[in-house]
Amino acid sequence: MLGASSQIAENIAGISMIPDAAVVLKHLLNLSPDVQKVYVVRRTGRLDATLNKAKAYLAERNIELDVRECDSLREGAAAYRNVLGDAADGDAVWILPGSTLIDNAVLSMMLGTAWQKDLILFSSNPLHVKRGLLFAVYPDNYGMGKSLAGLANKTLIEGEQMGMTPLTDVLIAVNERTSRHVGIELTNDMKNDIDLLLPAR
Fold it and tell me: Exposure pattern of 63-95 as b/e (b: 16+ CB <10 Å)?
């Protein structure tokens, strides 16, 4: 039983550390229900179950997923610049988990442009939220442990081999200052669902 992998492996039961796309995007739409387009930059040719699920989830809601591909950090910087140039106010940019196509310099450039254009940036790294991204989802280790126990029992009792599944036990961090800047006023109900709320400055 595996629960600390960033890969979706076959023939191994467990939970990946990659958050489930539907869970991530549900948080996006809870915070900003009027998003019409979500941009993603990924490595060329990479088979990505996360993005396949994301595309289906967004298509059901008439939201476009725009995927840009590149092969290196340098190309990634150019791809993100192009995304920021193409994106309209209120669009969202999703930094994928474990991306090697972005560094601190590119992130700083993205934050500056996003602030000017009221773009929504989100990821799976709560440290990004501290720097100014609107939100990030990250593993709820306690919840994942309970899910792993349930998966183990199911495997032992029913003999059912579940394989690796994406992470659905997540916490959410939100930058309140950024939310106000992009016109999102966090209600008390919304704040009750946020696990880490960085104070407005």
Answer: bebeebebeeeebbbebbeebbeebeebbbbbb
pLDDT tens-digit series, residues 30-82: 999 999 999 999 988 765 788 999 999 999 999 999 999 999 999 999 999 99
CA-based nearest residue to 48, from 18, 23, 27, 26: 18
Tell me the sheet residues that pair with 65.
38
* Tally of structural domains, the chain: 1
**CATH code of the domain covering residue 8:** 3.40.50.2300
Domain that includes residue 167, residue range: 2-198
3-state helix vs strand vs coil in the chain, percent to 5: 40, 25, 35
**Strands 135-139 and 170-175, how do they pair?**
antiparallel
